[in-house]
């Protein structure tokens, strides 16, 4: 059978593509399926005694059949169709749950002994499965994947065609159809054609939505597949890493802390400290103990089963796979919950866009209703021949369908997808599109030290005994018993291993698997092995390091003569944790000396001195027992549970073997990255389990700490007390308040020695820059103290436990910070879940990568800079798209309708041509603007606060409507009147207030001649709007820079694809205005050649006026125009 101490080194193979939910997606994350309630219900059903349940059901049924209950139910529960449908679904769910419960109740894997499980599964405990058996079982059971949630195609197709603004388009189709027949008298073919056009637009938008959804899903799937997923299994007598989707029932798997459970597994070996996180299934946040023994008749509650969707948070175990894919408990429950449609959570930007679209829709409904009411109350009676019923309805509905930019939601999704692909090129994996926009708001990053800020290349540099302190290089010359004990502790109390596949290489050249600290100790041991003779050993028990206890312990037995040897303890950990339990210390020669006060102070002094130089300092200890009778481990060597209990109680009377200092150099790029974040208004906090002096030294190397003065918890408490004193004095100016008494009220149990600093009025919050605070000092802090901590620009949190890291994130969030947290193991999971953005390293644990929103595939902290820059760019570019779309789709298209209804003009721009602009000519430019490069270094701007800085505001609408919109509207109508004058010799004064006069005989022209003149002028107006959008397209690229400073044609920030919009719009104009069929049906006209060129100066005028505005903004940033800039 595979043993718990074995290791693996092979790289995991790639995962085959396919629309599946793999075990990583089932692991701990913020987007898991809502399984906890179903799991608990299922567990209760399995555990409940069948006879008692039957009796209770019979009693309940008898009660419900009683006349009184029937009367009461008749009053309280109206059995309508909706209620009956809900009751039917509930019955189906209960039946499915009962079926699953019965199937699981028949399972016996948890009841069987280990040997019986191997026999039942047909697996060899020594060799595992053979290739033939693997293929046979894979063909029978399929891949180890949980089927994806049903596509619910009918519901999605319905949403594509009838969701969002499409419902109003369908309303307009009905109205246009009615305006054709029976309201139209005579029927106007144009209304029928408009209804058909809108149906075509609906189908086009639905197809685009489907295509965009497919592209987005495909992009995210390709990004997610970049992270390999593998599980260590025993096959053909050797361990190997295989894709988790390729596991089959009967596979023997090895799981360690940080691994996701890839299938339902029956434990056959487990370390005494094994802990399993089953929160995805149970909803309980605390991990549970894992054992080999049968503990509960309930298959879901017994501790010798590890379920898919769980994770190993501590320890190591070996198990045999008993169920895979949809046959697992997770698979069964996920299929049950997938019957209920769960709407995805909308992102902040999606909500803002939806709010904008809803606002515009409401405004368009109000305007359309106003026009119809105005017609009914005034035009119908005052000018009866001016506008018929069908014309009034068509005009009102035309405002509705052209008022909202239809490409806006599409642009948002395309923007998020494009940014996600861009981040992929920089080795940043985005798990969902929501994260992209959240990154733009991040203003605080809590990062780990080891592996994130440092190189994860820990090297032992210093060693100290009771009588001497030396560099690690000098230790290699020591051959005495003192060096041998140090070697044994470094080598045996260690979870790292050398690469077994490189056994032919020298040990110094072989790769080490393990965390940074254990790897450093193993390197030290391999270098000492040539000069130190040590007996072989056998490890009876290992209690791994954990941030809560800050030590690692092993119980060992020398194996040269086990009959004569006795078990002894080796332990290493934080000096402040182990030193109180030490009674002896050895010298370099191996002499045992008592641990007195002077020696203890010397160790503390050495620790602090090394820590100020950036060393991680650990104390190495051992405990041997005087006799067999006094040795509590004798006789229980083969009982892991007893060993664990005794070892936990035996951490006393330890002998210090040595004090070891090790360094892990910072990554070369970290100081520059931290400076970039600082310029971007983002604070970088170090959160580490290291000693405070060590953390502060490394933080200064990384430029996380730059202040000359570094505050501690004393200054935090003093400032809090002083601020509170000032508030009370301000509230009650006539009452004398004792600052000392108030300090006692705030500090409570803290030392009275801090009272003296309360009177220092010169020390204010403005000097609060750098802070170093340790975990024990955070215990019991009041909210006022956290308010003070949150004001510091540079913070190092040292000696932090996982619970405290979670507390730090929650406290920062409560104070309106948008927090990103980096992590690489199970201890970081609570904080990563609580943060706005969880960031995992590519070489981190499987659980960390499953819980993270972002995975840095290249393990480079500097990649977060790219991620945050992309998150900010999404917001900036979306504003550019909106500022491009709104002036045309709103003001420039609603004013013609207003002039038609209120001032009696022939409508300058028809509904059909408005739709062409809204859905075709503006589409390309809006999509291309999404991919604009930032006009300035957006990492020099502060982060966006979504609560204060929305997507649009008053200044935004002032720019869109009060500046760009007015220029475009005036230009379009000037072209309209100019064309009427040039084609019909009709002056504007004869066009205004024409109303019902615009008919046969007006100015000596027939009705057909007047209609022909208006159609040509309207098409010329349309062409003018298209050309004006060319100018708007160029000015929308920047908010403050000149078009010449960000050249669209060449240079690093060029966007030549914008130029494609010009020929596209010209071809569209030619198609809809030169084809005779459109002239006849939609009353468009052939645009005179000169009117393709006359609007160009107006577009240049728009660019020139915008250039002047931007110049004023740049030159006079405090001017009124600058303050009103968008």
List keywords for this structure.
1126 residues; alpha+beta; 9-stranded mixed beta sheet; 41 helices
Briefly, what is this?
The chain is α+β, with helices and mostly antiparallel strands.
What does this protein structure show overall?
The chain is of the alpha+beta class. 48% of the residues lie in helices and 13% in strands. The strands form six sheets. Strands 12-31-30-29-13-25-28-27-26 form a nine-stranded mixed β-sheet, with helices on both faces. Strands 14, 15, 18, 19, 20, 21, 22, 23 and 24 form a nine-stranded mixed β-sheet that branches. 45% of the residues are buried. Mean pLDDT is 80; it is low at 2-33, 68-83 and 733-767.
Percent of residues in helices comes to: 40-55%
Number of strands: 31
Major sheet, described briefly?
A: 9 strands, mixed
β-strand percent reads: 5-15%
Based on secondary structure, the structural category is alpha+beta
Strands ordered across the widest β-sheet: 12-31-30-29-13-25-28-27-26
DSSP helical segment count: 41
Q: Which term fits the overall shape? A: elongated
Average of per-residue pLDDT values: 80
How big is the Rg? 37 Å
Unreliable segments (pLDDT under 50, ≥5 consecutive)?
2-33, 68-83, 733-767
Span between termini:
69 Å
Fold topology:
Blueprint: E1 20-21, H1 23-26, H2 36-47, H3 50-64, H4 67-76, H5 81-105, H6 114-121, H7 131-141, E2 146-147, H8 153-162, H9 166-180, H10 189-224, E3 230-235, E4 238-243, E5 252-256, E6 264-270, E7 275-277, H11 279-282, E8 288-289, E9 305-306, E10 311-314, E11 316-323, H12 329-337, H13 348-382, H14 389-403, H15 408-425, E12 428-430, H16 434-439, E13 444-447, E14 459-464, E15 469-471, H17 472-475, H18 481-492, E16 497-498, E17 512-513, H19 516-528, E18 537-543, E19 551-558, E20 568-573, H20 575-578, E21 582-586, E22 592-594, H21 597-611, E23 616-623, H22 640-649, E24 654-663, H23 670-679, E25 683-687, H24 692-701, E26 710-711, H25 713-731, H26 739-747, E27 770-774, H27 775-778, H28 783-789, E28 794-798, H29 802-814, E29 819-823, H30 829-834, E30 837-841, H31 846-851, E31 854-856, H32 863-889, H33 891-902, H34 911-929, H35 954-984, H36 988-991, H37 1007-1035, H38 1061-1074, H39 1076-1081, H40 1095-1115, H41 1120-1123
Parallel strand pairs: 13-25, 13-29, 21-24, 25-28, 26-27, 27-28, 29-30, 30-31
Antiparallel strand pairs: 1-2, 3-4, 3-5, 5-11, 6-9, 6-11, 7-8, 7-10, 12-31, 14-15, 14-24, 16-17, 18-19, 19-20, 20-23, 21-22, 23-24
